[in-house]
Amino acid sequence: MSNRRTTRTPSRFSLRPSWLSSLTVIAVGLVMMVSVIACSSGSVTSQAVVGDVATSQAASGAAPQSASQAGSTLDQIISTGKVRIAVPQDSPPFGSMGTDMQPQGYDVDVAKLVAESLEVELELVPVTSTNRVPYLQTNRADMVISSLGATPERAKSIYFSIPYAPFYSGLYGAQNVAVSSYEELAGKSVGVTQGSLEDLELTKQAPEGLEVKRFEDNSTTASALLAGQVDLIATGNTIANKLMQDNPTRTIENKFVMKNSPCYVGVRRGDLDLLQWVNVFVASKRLSGELDALSQQWFGEPLELPAF
Is the full-model pTM beyond 0.90? Predict the structure, then answer.
């Protein structure tokens, strides 16, 4: 037996110089870093966006939005258990202060239905026609239900729901005055408030032989009809309905609609989830007859809204 020790030569695949081991460690580290960045990129981006929004708001002086506000007003309403709705305080029968010093009107009752459907507390925010949109934009209200008409100019700033309330200009007079179109106004006298929408529309559509009498304000125009100074008046349906309620024995009625301009619920631009909810709410309350009942109560006539 030989006393020599047998020495095995390492395979070339098992050779592992120190520099190769270092490269391997670096490569593994880079892969792990890329994985971490890829997995966390969503949260990093979200944080950056929220930061930009807060910075922009701070620079503009606007109140900073919370994460729920930035993401979903509907989620915020549900989570806080409260909805803030801007309603009119000086526009009966849509909204005004009652004798008990509590807000009342069609829009106020619609706001109550909204809170009931959302199963949250209602906070009414009284507004005027001039500050209702700014209140929405500055986050003082979650939505506006305040006899708000939709225009292309307004639609640049806020979103509008489907129509929920009627508002139109029409011809009104006693039942014994047979008129159903502009052509049949020939030979009649019509009172109108000077410079109003009805004045402009009537001037444009007036047939030959129509006598137009212009008055200083809506109350004077209404009084002219009651006093027999004119056969008919051209005015808004809310003014006419108040006139009919105050004078039930005069049998005043709507002859025809001159111009239709229904009311819409306003939400902040970008609040698509809340807008979708409001649209479903309005559609369901129209189908159930609840909005029709409110129209009968506050306007004295069935709910008539355009179908789009």
Answer: no
